[in-house]
Amino acid sequence: MLASIASEALSGLEGKPVQVEADVVAAAPAFYIVGLPDAAVQESRERVRAAIVNSAYAFPSRRITVNLAPADLRKEGPSFDLPIALAFLVATGQAADGCDGRGPLAAVGELGLDGTLRPVAGALALAESLRRRGVRGLILPAANAAEAALVRGLEVYPARTLAEAVTQLAAGGGAAAPPADLTALLGSPPAAGADFADIMGQEQVKRALEVAVAGAHNVLMSGPPGAGKTMLARRLPGIMPALTLNEAIEVTRIYSVAGLLAQDHALVTRRPFRAPHHTISSPGLVGGGGTPRPGEVSLAHLGVLFLDEFPEFRLSALEGLRQPLEDGEVTISRRLMSLTFPARIMLVAAMNPCPCGYLGDRDRDCTCPAHRVRQYGSRLSGPLLDRIDLRLEVPRVSPQDRRSGAHGEPSATVRARVSGARERQLARLAGTGAYANAHMGARHLRRLCTLEADATALLDRAYERLRLSARACDRVIKVAQTIADLEAAPTITAAHVAESLSYRNRSHHDR
Amino acid sequence: MNARQQFGRAAEEAAARYLTQSGWRLLGRNVRIGRGELDIVARRGRVLAFIEVKARRTHTCGAPEDAVSSLKRRQVARLAELWLAARPWATDGIDDVRFDIIAVDSTAIPSTIRHLPAAFTCDR
Q: B92 CB near a chain A CB, below 8 Å?
């Protein structure tokens, strides 16, 4: 009359083991769920009851106590429906647990009233965690199977209905889903769409963006309305290098937990490009909520976070970006838990130089009072600007360029150069955990980047003259390294450092 | 005993007769526990049932089975738990324990009897 099924709870991007125990006895009839369940887990009773009856099993009138152990871990969401139903059916002798001696199977899944299994969020993270704990296999909704099959060393048993799950359990694992062919999944073509060739002129800005994308450096573009800042940013996905397998799995894990994984794409294969509106709340941007969920910075992990109208964002949201920009992750603390979401982003910000937008324009006068200009720029704090490596002015397209309709290089050509530079970085950074120059730690920077003597001399002079911070100085070296990588140069020369410095200093936002 | 009480008593008689004819063995009738009362406790095979009897002469206030309010359900459930606690042997040879409702509908003569097995549980 007692049965137990292994399951897994999602906590941030990690799985935590949960044992689902069911005790069914002849006593005043009731259905209790204990073990710190939230409302969605309590509602599981109604779904389980209906799914069992509608799958032609009996729901006897007895006292059913379901315990979700450990009792001090808060259980959330509908993913315990399936293990609860299975434990109940085993406890009432309507299903057999055929795993004797072969190691138990775990189960997750949400039940519909008719007994169909609905997909759950975070199946990839749950599967990875089960494999780490040495669990043999997992019974889960068929819609999650492709995602879980990304994990090597865990048997994945898909089921479309409760009855199929019972069959899988009775066989101790019947028909396992084949492991995913990872290279085939990765080999999808880059995003077609807007091309860099569409943009007239702006050659200097395009060069700077190429450098930025090659090393995943943060960029701030400033210019009058209509100069093409948004247009340039929107074309970045076309020149971003393809995700490597490890990167793809990291990104997929986040999208899976956020419930944003497309049904037919088990693996996210394109670098994220997130462009939240400037009215976004601070938790929406950096992550948060009662049950912390990844924010836009995490959804943009290993891709681009594009913030248009940068100074219009809430101050709390902007300042919340400091930690992720520095550490490449966000830590969200709650009374009972502290969660860390990865957030290695390339920040691309765009803004007007002043409220009217025409400060510093060649042919049009700025109409803003001086104090308004100051106010506007001062919304961006020093610590935030210090983390932005490339500050670009995007001027109005010159009349000559506009008339000639001068078309630049197509995105594919730029992408090839960027990919080459990224491969050189990956080779150099192997073992550091970083995938791009921007994410090098200070320690790795000293060890891996070789500056020529005159490059060091130039940097030292710049440090004093430009009153760079130590962090800014490191960031100058990282950008210089990327420029060297684009040329396949073995060391960083004075020319690389000079170009890098020019990007940092070319702005009137420095005070 | 007034007319209302007599009507209620007659309905319980009818319910008891119906149960006996259907093969139930009555373990108790009008079982008083503290201030509460269980209408009928009965057993058939491996099933033990606590049966609440409700009768109606008109449907002005709805069908009789709808008159078992959530308060009444909670009360029956609590009394049943007490009844079981005092008799640990009562569940020997029992698989299912149920709360049933017997509705005696006297809107027409003769009355009709509706038996609702497992009408409610402790938690709903």
A: no
